[in-house]
């Protein structure tokens, strides 16, 4: 197969491996098929989005259903923008916006998420850096990119899914490494792009969010080559910007759905917060930051802190009138609408949820525009000011009334301890010379892959390879597999032969 003339369609390995539909569907649609056919995509059915499906007793979103909905929204946005001549011409100048590309990138964007959602991501990053000595640590987006370029095996001669440059570039929400690419690194910009800043308590650790580890840097550069000279090195491609915006939309809407279904999002608490801020806005706006912090959980104080945070971080779009209108719209739609009747599992209740989601999805998709000169903290594709504020308020609702709950914290502390114990147990297993022949084959292969990626003169090359292999291995487990593996390693499982499914 000849390498396509279009540089956006260039593959890492020249397209030598072919997937179902490669011949007829075109290179970008073929990428979609490759992603959907990957076992890493299938495993997302067992990975937590926010609420563990096993703990809820109800059908709630997992990483797989979330990815499908992000893909649905992303394709709708791309089709709408490319149907408008004004947007289409600008997008072409910026490198293009193909609906198949944004759909494929949306399907792939969460492949690297580890067990237990964002909690697992934070725990694995801490363990990778502090326990395993990996400067790059762990990041879900970078792990997704590693999977499609390095650790997913596709055919005898191909490592990774051999995706086109356009789709790999569209996966890069954060098109930089943790510490040193591009140069100057975007964390040094003022303000820094969203996600690029280093944590205040550890400025030497690099960006909080990043799109690739150093081991995949050559792949990142090749993916971005078709966009050189069109967009800054640290800026998302238009297709990545569509995917990122779609992810925000799906997160804002569908997580609220889940919290309502499970019954943890209560009308009274949400109403008290929003209405107290509306009633006392003048007073809350006038008090000092220390006085606001001292107000603690007093209704209205948390959302006033959100208003101030938006001005501090996103002054390019933050607007008090738009914020107040967003609070009112969310109050009407959520407090007086969705939350007015408790979810009882009936067909009527399901229809009510579906109408709520459809209204918000349509509202957001129709409010997306393209700008030729985005702010550093935005992308070329962005929501209008009013809808951008509504997304922030919806996200605030589930951060405030679900993620901050002590009972969820209790559950997550147990999951964090489980991951720490699992990593430690695997490390000890790798260090046992008598057990080398009995290591899980996948873990053994990942050690060899990681060792081959490192320069022969890398300090503690074997140790670093083992550390990266453990991170890769744990990150590819589902929630249930992580629990089952620790049970087996701790001697608590009596199911000898059926435990092999996690190996």
Task: Quickly list its features.
single chain, 503 residues, mainly alpha, Hypothetical protein af1432, 3 domains, two-stranded antiparallel ribbon, 2 strands, 57% helix, globular, hydrolase, dGTPase-like, HD_domain
Structure description:
- Pfam families: HD (PF01966), HD_assoc (PF13286).
- Residues 177-209 are annotated as: Disordered.
- Residues 178-191 have a biased composition (Basic and acidic residues).
- The chain is mostly helical and 503 residues long.
- The protein folds into three domains: 7-238, Orthogonal Bundle (Hypothetical protein af1432); 266-404, no CATH class; 410-501, no CATH class.
- It is built from 23 helices and two strands.
- It has helices at residues 22-25, 27-36, 39-43, 53-56, 63-83, 85-94, 99-108, 117-130, 140-151, 165-171, 217-224, 238-262, 267-279, 281-286, 289-294, 301-313, 320-335, 347-365, 385-403, 406-431, 441-453, 461-475, 479-489; strands spanning 368-370, 381-383.
- A two-stranded antiparallel ribbon has the order 1-2.
- α20 (406-431) packs across α23 (479-489).
- Residues 16-21 and 154-158 have low confidence and may be disordered.
Helix content: 55-70%
What percent of residues are in strands? under 5%
Computed Rg: 23 Å
The chain-level structural class is mainly alpha
Structural domain count? 3
* The CATH homology group name of the largest domain: Hypothetical protein af1432
Secondary-structure element series: HHHHHHHHHHHHHHHHHHEEHHHHH
Question: Which outline best applies?
Answer: globular
Would you state the CATH class of the largest domain? Mainly Alpha
Strand order across the largest sheet: 1-2
The DSSP helix count reads: 23
Total beta strands: 2
CATH topology of the largest domain: Hypothetical protein af1432
| Straight-line N-to-C gap | 36 Å
Sheet bearing the most strands, described?
A: 2 strands, antiparallel
CATH architecture of the largest domain: Orthogonal Bundle
Uncertain ranges: 16-21, 154-158
Overall mean pLDDT stands at 89
